[in-house]
Amino acid sequence: MKKVFFLQLIVTLFLLNGCVSVTSNLSKIHPRTIDGYAVLYQKYLDSNETNNLLWNYETGSLSYFLSKYDQSVNHFDKAEWLIKEYEERVLAKNSLENIGSVLTNDNFMDYQPKEYEKIMVNTYKGIDFILLGDFINARIEFNRALVRQDRAREFFKKEIELKKKEIEAEQKHANNPFVGSIAKDNKTTDVILRRYSNLFTFKPYPDFVNPFTTYMAGLFFLNIGDYQKATDLLKESYGMIVESSKGSEYIAKDLKLAISQKRSLAPLKEHYTWVIFLNGRSTFKKQIRIDVPLFLFPHSNAYYTGIALPILVPGIKAYNTLFVSNAKQKKETKTIASMDNVIKTEFKKRFPLIMSRALTRTVVQTLIQVEAYRKLGAWEGVIASIYQSLVNQADLRMWNELPSEFQIVRLKTTKTLQIATKTKTFFSMQTDPKRNYIVFVTIQEQNNQPIIQYQRF
Questions:
Q1: Which range (54-68, 95-109, 405-419) has the least confidence?
Q2: Is residue 362 predicted with pLDDT exceeding 80?
Q3: pLDDT band for position 1 (cuts 50, 70, 90)
Q4: Domains of the chain: which residue ranges?
Q5: How many CA atoms lie within 13 A of 149 on its CB side?
Q6: CA 98 to CA 317: how far, in whole Å?
Q7: What are the beta bridge partners of residue 416?
Q8: What's the gap between Cα 255 and its chain centre?
Q9: At 316, is the pLDDT very low, low, confident or very high (cuts 50, 70, 90)?
């Protein structure tokens, strides 16, 4: 009977592994053309995983790429609703829903939103509304994004406190003091942290702040004539990046323009075109495995033990820069913010808990393996080790359609605009010298078909 139980356990695990979300598979597809994005978007719609937060992130991004701004807003609205549900559970302090997940892994749980994702949901909605010409709702979304940035630190603190309680409850539930002691053992954690030393050597942004969101909000308010708010936001975004990004000189010029208009009662004498380059694909996760020395489990007869952890892989840029020109000027785009660094900043803050949770899971599962061998025999010990090796998977889920970085440039508006790489011009348009323009350029990989969208003010 005991052998039958363990065999049923393995079969159940295989069945659960087979029930992988369609979103997890579709997120690995990288289209190169607009038609390719359309095909991928339809596949997402066919899967209809509307209660999956990542599904809504991805469909919101894809519909934006396809200039389906209303649909993009709808998908991001649903994402925001799911985020709100999660936040309410955390704030109510009753979200101890992961107890027992030490027997499986986090992939079996609902995806939990990150602070940078919440901010980018409202940022993208703001851009959607700009492109729809709905400046009232664009104002609302940028204000929401800014409020999220202001409140993120406080919410994160509450979330982390709750997750610490979850881990402590899991360790207590294991009813073995050995579980908690290894998860806190410096010899073990130091080995793991050494594998992450290079990843964490970067200049972080202020906690949970995306300089692009602040800049984009400032640029929007500048173009709708709210020069006081534009001045405050552009000054803030400039201060974030002045020591780290070449694009700070461009923000300084926008700030100077906002200040001069704030002090003047006259309308703009000259009109401008801003090009916003959403460059490449953001950092992604891959799995690393670190074997835990079996001497940590004396007289264990364990066949396998190891810890699976996520590690961030740097994002890719489509191009180092774009060249933007008209009849009078030619300039190149410059970086104002790295989405990769925004993601890494938050990942670094979350990592101690990720590590503690993974260690707790590894120890609990190994002790089950040991007990299976001791009480039931070698065959059951082998089955338990197979179970552990299959279940020992890091959670690699994240929003995949974000850019690696954001670049900008500003020119005076003339009658034409061209956007090019070093080797070819890929976009030309007629422009009205009496209007301001914001042009969004998305290129996820080199030689991909560029996605160009713009709005006049």
A1: 95-109
A2: no
A3: very low
A4: 2-456
A5: 24
A6: 37
A7: 430
A8: 28
A9: very high
Q: In one letter, which amino acid is 286?
A: K
Q: Which amino acid is at 232?
A: D
Contact 405, 335 (CB under 8 A): yes
209, burial (CB in 10 Å: exposed 0-12, middle 13-18, buried 19+): buried
Q: For residue 364, what pLDDT is reported?
A: 74
Q: Are 247 and 336 in contact (CB under 8 A)?
A: yes
Indicate whether this model's pTM tops 0.85. Answer: yes
In whole angstroms, give the CA distance from residue 309 to residue 195. 10
Residue type, 172: K
Instruction: Pick the closest to residue 75 from 106, 44, 98 (CA basis).
Output: 44
* 79/95: higher pLDDT: 79
Question: Is the backbone of residue 452 left (phi > 0), alpha (psi -120 to 50) or beta?
Answer: beta
- Average per-residue pLDDT in the chain? 86
Three-class DSSP labels, the chain: CHHHHHHHHHHHHHHHHHCCCHHHHHCCCCCCCHHHHHHHHHHHHHHCCCCCHHHHHHHHHHHHHCCCHHHHHHHHHHHHHHHHHHHHHHHCCCCCCCCCHHHCCHHHCCCCCCHHHHHHHHHHHHHHHHHHCCHHHHHHHHHHHHHHHHHHHHHHHHHHHHHHHHHHHHHHHCCCHHHHHHHCCHHHHHHHHHHCCCCCCCCCCCCCCCHHHHHHHHHHHHHCCCHHHHHHHHHHHHHHHCCCCCCHHHHHHHHHHHHHHHCCCCCCCCCEEEEEEEECECCEEEEEEEECCHHHCCCCCCCCCEEEEEEEECCECCCCCCEEECCCCEEECEEEEEHHHHHHHHHHHHHHHHHHHHHHHHHHHHHHHHHHHHHHCHHHHHHHHHHHHHHCCCCCCCCCCCCCEEEEEEEECCCEEEEECCCCEEEEEECCCCCCEEEEEEECCCCCCCEEEEEEC
Q: Which residues contact 281 (CB under 8 A, 6 or more apart)?
A: 30, 315, 316, 400, 401, 402, 403, 404, 444, 445
Q: Other C-beta atoms within 10 Å of 246: how many?
A: 14
pLDDT grade for 2, boundaries at 50, 70 and 90: very low
Ranges 7-11, 20-24, 216-220: which has the least confidence: 7-11
